[in-house]
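[agent] plan:
  1. take the single chain provided in the ticket
  2. run structure prediction with default settings
  3. attach structure tokens to the ticket
  4. add a short note for the reviewer (M.T.)
[agent] executing step 1
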Amino acid sequence: MSKNPTTAQERLERLTADLSGARVSSRAGGRLRLNRSSNLLLGAALHAAARVDRNLALTDLEQQLVDVLGKVLTEEGEVAAFGRAYTQATARGAVDILPESITSRPVEDGYALADLLTELPALGQEVMAQPNFSIVDVSRIAPGEPLDSEEFKAGMAEYGRGITIVDGPPLDRAAEETLGHFALRMHSFHCLVESHESGTDEIYWGLAAGSDTSVKKSWTTREYHEVSSGSWHTFDPGSYLFAGSVRESMAAEIEVWEADHSGSSFMASLRDVLSEVSERAAEASKTLSDMDSEAEKAAQFAALVYVVAGLLDAFLGWITNEDDLVLKRTIRFTRAGLAEMSRRPNGEDSWWFGGGDGGEHTLYLRCGEGAVRAIADGWPGLKNSAFADSRGAAVTSGQHTYFFKGTDYIRYDNTREVIDVPPTKIAAGWPGLQGIFIASLGASCQVPGDTSNVYLFRGEYYTRYNVRSEETVVPSTKIADGWPALRHTPFASSVNAAVKVPGSDTDVYLFKDDEYVRYNTSSESISSGPYKIAAGWPGLQGTEFTYNIDAASEVPGSDEDVYLFKGGHYVRYATRGDFIRP
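[agent] step 2 finished; step 3 output follows
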């Protein structure tokens, strides 16, 4: 974990105060006591620390919890010191912030995963009965209307946390049998009421998400300054809560903080905790996918969220002034709920965040469903032509995209959505080309920094061609010689697809089989890779585009997106957010 913003002595003093109830008057301490049942894992972790102090063998669950504790309690012997503090507190009797099922357990008795699983069902039902838990069917709420009831907002303010399950009408069977691809973008937030501290507020957001396909994301926004009652603030471009594939559900944690006392070391620690949350969110989403009953999934989600949140909330309380926290919300989005959200006007819904004296805000999220589309639908001018099947190459130059297939090519006008050069022999339309390149092409792409030049690949050879002057700039050359850093890679023998890296004047992406590489044509070096496409382009997971991509091309006017083609399908992919565009 990043450098800890508190000392070992300060952390021990905070734990001791929590266990004795001395911090109950603070906002953070009050929440810890109110959410007693959620502190099941926290209690298990402290119980495990006590067993470490006595050199007792740990259960598998206890070892995992001690490993997590070690990320926050970084000094030698600190975990054992926490264990002694816990033992002393439980010797005095019940501990108000911890479940009695933990504190009444003798230190000699380990706490195993089976013990946790036994307690979760009852805990789930308890959590679902609390006022800070809600289930929302988006289809039953009119567009523009708030998703949060007044009763639920009051419950969140009281507990300092909200748990929501977002659902929608059942998907049809065809949709259920494939993966969905979604992007949730942080669009803006509206300060309804500023905090009661002097001056305007400085606000930032902590975000973590994970889906049942193991797509994970965690980060913190920048600080937004001069936040006052009535002010509106738009998030920076590329601010995505989540972008990627979903089979049945994804879970997200959204936190809003005041930046008044948050130093750089705390920000780094918060990012580490959020990373841990995204891991747990992905695990929880996969666990829920194995259950049949929606009621069972809801209860299990509520329980899992609460026990993990209790542990991580305690972490933050030990390393910072948690009174800077306005509110935390954990949301499980079912795939049906995401699909319904994406059909709202602008894909937008609002979410309430309020923390009493800490201020009150409305967050606006926009949801889009990415699509693997038929080439004939997205490129209507190609309908009923042989080029609606992409088994060839493609390259964009200016407002035109050239599609190659066998010995022929066409030129497509991206503005008018028509073919303005009909199927023509490559030898006739590209007179400067010679030899193997007039028979067929394996891949093609723009030369970075030069819109009139393109690279063309076939087998182990490539050439550079000027589209405007219609002449070969670099004659047929072996890839291994002209792209020397590729010499000992699979890309030296052939390239399936190629595309200029959006926004770059030096780099291109090359694809082959299930791998890709990013190459710097200026320094003649590999910028990154070779990597598996599924790993480096996570938004493609679960689609046919993780192997044997047929072609790729630039998106005119975009410094972020590329088109990828395979067979009769294509996707528009956002390389910065790593997701398929709607």
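[agent] step 4 note for reviewer: The domain at 115-370 is CATH 2.60.40.150 (Immunoglobulin-like).
[agent] ticket updated
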